[in-house]
Amino acid sequence: MTSKESILNAIKNHKPEATALPELLVFPKEPQLIERYEKGLNGNGGKLQQVQSLAEVQQYVNSHYTADQLVASLVDEVSGNVDVRKISDPHDLEHVEVAVVRGELGVAENGAIWMPEANVVHRVLPFIAQHLIIIIEEETLLTNMHEAYQKVNVAESGYGVFIAGPSKTADIEQSLVIGAHGPRSLTVFLLRKS
Amino acid sequence: MKEHTHAQAAAEFIKDDARTHWHDETLWHVRSKRDLSAQGIPEWETLRDRASATKDYVLSHLGELLEQFESNALANGVEVLWAKDAKEHNEHVYRILQENKVENIVKSKSILTEECGLNHYLEDKGYDVVDTDLGERIIQFAKQAPSHIVLPAIHLKKQDIGEIFHKHIGTDKGASDPGYLTEAARQHLRKKFVEANAAITGVNFGIAETGGFVVCTNEGNADMGTHLADIHIACMGIEKLIPRAADLGVFLRLLARSATGQSITNYSSHFHKAAPGKKLYIILVDNGRTEQLAREDFKNSLKCIRCGACMNTCPIYRRSGGYSYNSTVPGPIGSILSPGKDLKKFSTLPFASTLCGSCSDVCPVKINIHEQLYKWRQVITENVDMGASKRLSMRVAGATFGKPVLYDLAGKMARTALKFTPDSLVYSSLNVWGKHRDLPEVPKESFKEWYKKNRN
């Protein structure tokens, strides 16, 4: 008997009485989505900037990073100096200072942003960069995680991640330190409805 | 090696009074953050009910869901392996490492691999396994085990960690600033991430309907490891399944809030397929889980999502430390899981509880932890030699509580006797009960006597 068979047999012989699969939950919509989103994001150590156009993101990048720092942008309206799409080995992203990517949607209750593989090209990009900038559109804000999983097909691509803040740890005496292994900051630009 | 009882190990921990208080307060602070976070969600109790019911469904359909999970994972190009026990799990990992000529391994937090003793197994085979969660790296340097499932180094103070880092990664002697130490670990571990050929992770949730799985971290260490290495091995207990991706809405809302009070971990990563040119393996591990499933009174312990809330709230855990349990999973949940694995070795754990029920109150999947602790006590008393003095006193107590006349008489006698009991008897070394305890002030009458007089 294979291990699979013996495990499945053991389960079959002692299966608890069948219970029903619960219905999915729906809760009331959050009326103040942007305020709630900002509170959620700040709670995780991220910062929110509300902008009317992507030119403002470009200005932010220009004023915060120097020409000799590596800027990896996957947003057409924001220029960088690393062409992520031309890189084949993700290790070549090791020295990226800031990555600029688009998120699919934002979740107001906790600040989380859904980031499918296609938006980052290399899965490691939003982790290996020293700083991370994510752009989301106001229209994509949702109330909670239940709504998010209704919208997102998690199996659509090989990988996807909810990013809710910068890399952080509190493993030393419960003292919060931002920048454990990944980004030392997360700045979310919320593109307002025009 | 001599087995220590929980009480003996706890006595060791509380020798350092200041540290015991600090440990107690630190964990209570985490518990308070959990409360604040839970109270911010009006539907919190609905979420707990739903999570519990969803896990009931999982346990009562475990075979079907495992097969569904496997076939979907296979369709995603994932290699799925089954392991009856820790040994088979470790052998699978070793074979994968050999086949792929792996030299450098990074590992993110996985309680299952702790349970299986994977690190020691691989070290014996000549591999160096680098734990990348900061807390786990600290205790790995110190050659210790995690003392808490979410906060592995919670028993150490920053000065201890400063010493450990000074010795192993050359931080300044005497430096203990958490920011400085974390930065040093960041630089040290970044090199390890870049060099790694294989990354090992645990699994927080396996999704039956898609064959994918979710790994939650705050540090991003699981992602740094898996996305740079060519091989990803995900080690998953068979009880980690959920039926649908949409169920994650419930579980992710509960997990981090219950664990540390944060609304979600900063990274909740969903893996379905390996990146092009890379390989993804999932090992499904039983290691005693199907036996626990067969125990009607204890099967619900398999609902656990490893948030650690029951530890943070437990008055015993907070004051006795994780090591006093001598079990991979300590605290209240460990005390109902571990006796199923080795009744004799873990026979004192279900007694390391006041049965106050706080663990059950905070459990996000509503496991009746304190009731199971009580039930394990029955099993243990019937099956394990508790030592002569405990056996005798339990037999006398059983006879007394079972007969009202005897109970009333014993009460009267005790009220008299307590008044005249000399301290030397209470605090003698023969009476372990007297340690850290004072005798109560003696009431003049029993509640029953008072009630008879006052009921009109």
TrEMBL record, chain A:
Listed InterPro entries: FTHF_cligase-like_sf, LUD_dom, NagB/RpiA_transferase-like
Gene3D superfamilies associated with the record: NagB/RpiA/CoA transferase-like (3.40.50.10420)
Residues in LUD domain copies: 93-191
Signal sequence extent: none
The protein's name in its UniProt record: LUD domain-containing protein
Species of provenance: Echinicola pacifica
UniProtKB/TrEMBL annotation, chain B:
PROSITE patterns: 4FE4S_FER_1, 4FE4S_FER_2
4Fe-4S ferredoxin-type domain segment(s): 294-315
GO molecular function: 4 iron, 4 sulfur cluster binding; metal ion binding
One Pfam family it belongs to: Fer4_8
Keywords of the record: 4Fe-4S, Electron transport, Iron, Iron-sulfur, Metal-binding, Repeat, Transport
Superkingdom of the source species: Bacteria
Keyword Lipid metabolism: no
KW Ribosomal protein (keyword) present: no
PANTHER family in the record: LACTATE UTILIZATION PROTEIN B (PTHR47153)
Protein name according to UniProt: 4Fe-4S ferredoxin
